[in-house]
């Protein structure tokens, strides 16, 4: 019986293999691009950031109680981080404005924001979005507020929103003034966990003295907003939120009055608690005396929500994100120190009445936590206010 030679298998030359790989990659990129949901983030990136090239890969990164997170890789190698939400665009416009103002200081590592606004009507990704530079790809679990029951996805048209570049605060003057930013807190008694964007080279917080030095340079930077820079006023160009609580930022020329009305009394009104209100009034009556040693207070840009979950290092450089920005007294930045683990290396001040001011700034955040979560935070607020009322 004659033997039958086995069939010959064609083996492509290296160049042929390379061309085949290139064709497959191009086909995959084309397929990825064509599979983008209409009216979504990837479509916006391709339309408005043409130098980045086509979006070749979009990855869901989970979400919080009110937003979904995603990363988007492009042909050029550019990579973007995005948040989308079922809520209106105000929350992202506030976050974008704050991040842009922080970025303009060129001190801490802050993601550059490209756009915040509404998604087009019919978008499956929600009602609003924000796009910023991607600082990395590592995700870590962080407790977040559960999404409210009954919250439904609805449809909305694109609005011009706000497109931001370094050093630019281009606000939409027609935008509603109440804004919202993400609630990311370790104090929720019944947290859910979401995979939240954290850079691949996002290290531990690093040296606190180095972080403190960068933070001081940020506080000393010339304000990017005219009201603070030219007129020495306190507040911000838009209202935003601290956690999920509205944070009013209407401009004011007197810091003591601003913090009394826009921070302490604002939180007391939200609490609607007679005990807290009575003690709070005794506290605010003492405020002018505690600030007398400070002399003239200049407005510094504040991150506004500086706790351990919002700071770290990127490539060895101090970084911060998820802010509640406004212009105020630099000492107010440390109101969340009880939640950040800061040591004396971060805040070595010892001047007269510093301790009273430190407690006052902490009180604002404790009142906010009481308004958000209730529980034992009321007792802490009462203890702080009793100690301040006697000074």
> How many DSSP H or I helices?
9
CATH topology of the largest domain: Aminoglycoside 3'-phosphotransferase, Chain: A, domain 2
Largest sheet strand order: 1-2-3-5-4
Q: CATH homologous superfamily of the largest domain - what is it?
A: Aminoglycoside phosphotransferase (APH), C-terminal lobe
Structural class based on helices, strands and sheet pairing: alpha+beta
Overall structural domain count:
2
Helical content (DSSP H or I, runs of 4+): 25-40%
Our Rg estimate from Cα atoms comes to 25 Å
What CATH architecture label of the largest domain applies?
A: Alpha-Beta Complex
| Average predicted confidence as pLDDT | 78
Between the first and last Cα atoms, what is the distance in angstroms?
110 Å
Describe the structure using short key phrases:
391 residues; alpha+beta; Phosphorylase Kinase, domain 1; Aminoglycoside 3'-phosphotransferase, Chain: A, domain 2; five-stranded antiparallel beta sheet; three-stranded antiparallel beta sheet; 9 helices
Kindly describe this structure:
The protein is globular and about 65 Å long. The chain is built from nine helices and 14 strands. The N terminus is likely disordered. A five-stranded antiparallel sheet has the order 1-2-3-5-4. Strands 8-12-13 form a three-stranded antiparallel sheet, with helices on one face. The protein is 33% helix and 18% strand. It has two domains: 164 residues, Phosphorylase Kinase, domain 1, CATH 3.30.200.20; 190 residues, Aminoglycoside 3'-phosphotransferase, Chain: A, domain 2 (Alpha-Beta Complex).
């Amino acid at each position: 019986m004659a033997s039958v030679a086995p069939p010959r298998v064609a083996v492509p030359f290296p160049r042929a293999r390379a061309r085949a790989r290139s064709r497959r990659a191009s086909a995959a990129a084309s397929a990825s691009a064509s599979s983008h949901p209409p009216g979504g983030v990837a479509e916006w990136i391709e339309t408005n950031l043409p130098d980045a090239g086509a979006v070749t890969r979009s990855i869901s990164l989970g979400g919080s109680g009110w937003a979904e997170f995603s990363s988007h890789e492009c042909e050029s190698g550019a990579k973007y981080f995005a948040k989308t939400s079922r809520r209106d665009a105000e929350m992202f416009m506030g976050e974008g404005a704050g991040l842009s103002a922080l970025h303009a200081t060129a001190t801490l590592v802050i993601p550059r924001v490209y756009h915040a606004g509404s998604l087009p009507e019919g978008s499956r990704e929600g009602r609003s979005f924000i796009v910023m530079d991607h600082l990395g790809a590592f995700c870590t679990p962080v407790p977040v507020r559960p999404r409210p029951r009954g919250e439904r996805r609805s449809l909305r048209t694109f609005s011009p929103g706000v497109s931001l570049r370094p050093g630019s605060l281009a606000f939409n003057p027609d935008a509603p003034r109440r804004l919202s930013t993400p609630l990311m807190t370790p104090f929720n008694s019944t947290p859910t966990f979401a995979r939240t964007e954290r850079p691949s080279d996002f290290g531990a917080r690093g040296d606190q003295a180095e972080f403190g030095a960068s933070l001081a340079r940020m506080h000393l930077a010339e304000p990017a907003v005219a009201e603070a820079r030219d007129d020495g006023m306190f507040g911000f160009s838009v209202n935003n939120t601290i956690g999920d609580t509205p944070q009013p930022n209407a401009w004011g020329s007197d810091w003591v009055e601003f913090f009394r009305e826009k921070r302490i009394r604002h939180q007391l009104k939200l609490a609607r608690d007679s005990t807290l209100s009575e003690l709070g009034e005794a506290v605010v009556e003492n405020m002018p005396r505690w600030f007398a040693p400070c002399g003239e207070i200049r407005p510094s840009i504040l991150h506004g929500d500086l706790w351990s979950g919002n700071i770290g290092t990127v490539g060895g450089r101090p970084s911060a994100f998820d802010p509640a920005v406004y212009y105020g007294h630099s000492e107010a930045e440390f109101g969340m120190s009880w939640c950040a683990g800061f040591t004396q290396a971060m805040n070595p001040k010892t001047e007269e009445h510093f301790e009273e001011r430190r407690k006052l700034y902490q009180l604002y955040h404790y009142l906010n936590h009481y308004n958000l979560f209730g529980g034992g935070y009321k007792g802490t607020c009462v203890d702080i206010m009793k100690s301040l009322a006697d000074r």
